[in-house]
Design brief:
This protein has 16 helices and 20 strands. It is α/β, with parallel strands linked by helices. The chain has one domain: Spore Coat Polysaccharide Biosynthesis Protein SpsA, Chain A (Alpha-Beta Complex). A hairpin with a 2-residue loop joins strand 18 and strand 19. The radius of gyration is 21 Å and the shape is globular.
Length: 424
């Protein structure tokens, strides 16, 4: 079946082919039974995987910076383009919002969460996606960056609502017109294709589904690997429904000043974060950082432990992954060119392919398994390669330690109640 898909896309651009490359990497891991089972060291299991909450990080090969200590400077940013990428490639049906799209846009068909959730701004009710575009326009007026680009990640289910969003009016002209100047540009949207699923152990097109936001990480890392020039670009990735998911100049200035190729933003775990992925250290002769997800904890019969990590009196802080990922294209390309001179594209794809997540969905009594990967896993797998091959980390970790910092950058919406609480 993968060969049929490849034949269909034979004359398409590299952009479409990378969808197949990504899915094929996940499928190969399925066939090789490479799903990662992570069991945390909890005093009973003799595991080499340790939650950060059980470690004194000053003695470990992991460096965390705190947002609260960053210098308030823009000195390093004037020669850099800022590319803002919002992940809008899923319906997010767990957030009930049919009443909102009917009320404010007189439509019934769902788009992305970002296009379907509406907030008040200057007396207008606008979508979160529209508010993000307006924030980019307002940021451009400050002339901190050489240029600001904007790009959406979408799929066929969300494309229509996103395109409608770009036609909305802002101060007398459509949003898309604002992004046609020398300081603001809308880049070609990144399309994530709907991919086959697994039924009764075999690939099927009876049910199609996107294969996780790991695709975006895979796509961007591969794009940088293929480039022939050093470009001063900061590529920032955030959730499409989170208005706060664009980093500020303090974060990006710190990233450029320290020549960090990749930054992952975390936040100190709270009671509200019991279900999400948390960072852990795999301690061996070449230690590396990984993410432990709820599903893996359940499989290891460690769900209760997983939920309480970092919240118990005896624990150090646990670090919760926000899905905000920053790529310094210039610094990353330099590292790839210097260190991976003998690595071909096929090998690089294997290095950056995310750990396999098997997401089982039951439809009309039939089980379908969606093959998925996470963006953080792509980044951490490349970091793992650099740590193990060159004894050099590639990722810098930045933690939002205080509640104020957290709310300034991270307000995820996983269910309707989250939205109602944030924007009440």
């Amino acid at each position: 079946m993968l060969n049929i898909l490849k034949e269909q896309l034979e004359n398409s651009s590299n952009f479409f082919r990378v969808n197949i490359d990504y899915f094929e990497a996940l499928y190969e891991k399925l066939k090789a039974k490479e799903q990662i089972d992570l069991v945390l060291n909890d005093g009973k299991n003799e595991s080499n995987i340790y939650s950060f909450s059980s470690l004194d990080l000053s003695n470990e090969p992991v460096d965390f910076a705190n947002y609260e200590t960053l210098e308030d400077s823009t000195a390093e940013l004037g020669n850099y383009e800022l590319t803002i990428c919002k992940m809008q490639a899923g319906l997010g049906t767990s957030v009930k919002r049919q009443d909102l799209i009917l009320k404010y846009e007189n439509r019934e068909k769902l788009g992305a969460k970002g296009t379907d959730l509406f907030i008040s701004k200057n007396g207008r009710m606008i979508s979160i996606a529209q508010a993000q575009l307006e924030k980019a326009i307002e940021l451009s007026a400050k002339s901190i960056y050489k240029k600001i680009n904007y790009v959406d990640l979408y799929n066929e289910e969300t494309k229509e609502a996103l395109e409608r969003n770009w036609q909305k009016d802002f101060e007398g002209k459509s949003l898309i017109k604002w992004f046609e100047g020398s300081k603001l540009e809308r880049l070609e949207s990144i399309e994530q294709l709907m991919m086959p699923t697994i039924k009764d152990g075999e690939l099927t097109v009876e049910r199609l589904a996107p294969a996780g936001h790991g695709f975006l990480g895979f796509y961007k890392l591969l794009k940088v690997f293929r480039e022939n020039e050093l470009r001063k670009e900061l590529f920032v990735i955030g959730n499409g429904e989170d208005l706060q998911s664009t980093p500020d100049h303090k974060i990006l200035n710190w990233m450029v000043r320290n020549e960090l190729p990749i930054v992952m933003i975390t936040t100190t775990k709270t009671e509200n974060d019991k279900k999400g992925g948390q960072l852990a250290l795999v301690k061996n002769d070449r230690p590396y950082v990984t993410i432990v997800e709820k599903a893996q904890a359940e499989k290891a019969n460690q769900l209760e432990l997983f939920e309480q990590l970092g919240l118990r009196e005896e624990d150090n802080s646990s670090f919760f992954n926000t899905n905000i990922v920053l790529i310094n294209t210039y610094a990353l390309k330099k590292q790839l060119d210097q260190k991976l001179k003998t690595v071909n594209e096929s090998s690089f794809k294997k290095i950056i392919s995310p750990d396999l997540i098997k997401n089982v969905k039951k439809v009309d009594g039939v089980e379908y398994t969606q093959l998925e990967g996470a963006i953080g896993s792509c980044m951490l797998n490349l970091d793992k390669y650099f740590r193990q091959e060159f004894e050099q980390p590639l990722i810098g970790f930045l933690n939002l330690n205080s509640l104020e910092s957290r709310l300034n950058f991270f307000r995820p919406i996983k269910k309707r109640e989250d939205f109602d609480e944030i924007y009440k």
